Automatic annotation (TrEMBL):
Ranges where the Phosphoribosyltransferase domain occurs: 6-210
CDD domains: PRTases_typeI (cd06223)
Full protein name: uracil phosphoribosyltransferase
EC top class, as a word: transferase
Xref: Gene3D superfamilies: 3.40.50.2020
InterPro entries: PRTase-like, PRTase_dom, UPRTase/APRTase
Length: 212
């Protein structure tokens, strides 16, 4: 799976362990999801283009510098759970614009249904799009979100999918339909169970983030 970048950092692994633990309370779960999101954001933003931006130092000397135009970045958290990564990315990209896509899963068929789509209809204003979701399981919700972006005119080459926990099934579904999209994951887990949950996984990230 060379098309997937997996985080390699001891503190990212530390956050993943906390997120997996069934005894982690809601406060610590939120903190660790945000912490993992920061590592994903650092890795995901490696490919951003910086522009030359010299500065004058307090010694009245001009020094070379580089700046990133974060206003040309679009963040797309997949509701609900994707909101858990939003603040992490905004910490590094404070001028980024934020779109919202709400996708629910039918627990009988595992198919994804869209209930909210607020996407800017001017894709030319954005150089990079980060889709945020803690879980890449069956890939149905992820593909639905990517289809919405594609229908709005966003090219695959602009999009990076950032997730915390992924499995091969979801990765393969994205790559079969959107081969130019990059994926960054905190970890790649073993498999899906019979009801479409990641194993060993972290349970339902949305529930643990907001309801428990």
């Amino acid at each position: 799976m060379s098309f997937v970048t997996v985080l390699k950092h001891p503190l990212a692994s530390h956050h993943i362990r906390i997120l997996r633990d069934r005894d982690t309370d809601i406060e610590m779960f939120r903190r660790s999801l945000k912490g993992l999101g920061l590592f994903l954001a650092v890795e995901a933003t490696r490919q951003l283009q910086a522009v030359s931006s010299p500065v004058i130092t307090p010694l009245d000397v001009e020094a070379p510098g580089e700046a990133v135009e974060s206003g040309r970045v679009l963040l797309v958290p997949v509701l609900r759970a994707g909101l858990g990564f939003l603040d992490s990315f905004l910490e590094l990209l404070p001028a980024a614009r934020v779109a919202h896509v709400g996708v629910s899963r039918d627990h009988e068929t595992l198919q994804a249904c869209t209930y909210l789509s607020v996407i800017p209809q001017n894709p030319e204003l954005f150089d990079t799009v980060f889709v945020l979701d803690p879980m890449l399981a069956t890939g149905n919700s992820s593909v639905k979100t990517l289809e919405i972006l594609q229908d709005a005119g966003y090219s695959q080459e602009k999009i990076i999918f950032a997730c915390g926990f992924a499995v091969e099934e979801g990765i393969n579904q994205i790559k079969s339909k959107f081969p130019a999209i990059g994926i960054i994951a905190g970890t790649i887990d073993w498999k899906l169970n019979e009801v479409g949950y990641i194993v060993p996984g972290l349970g339902d990230a949305g529930d643990r983030l907001y309801l428990i």
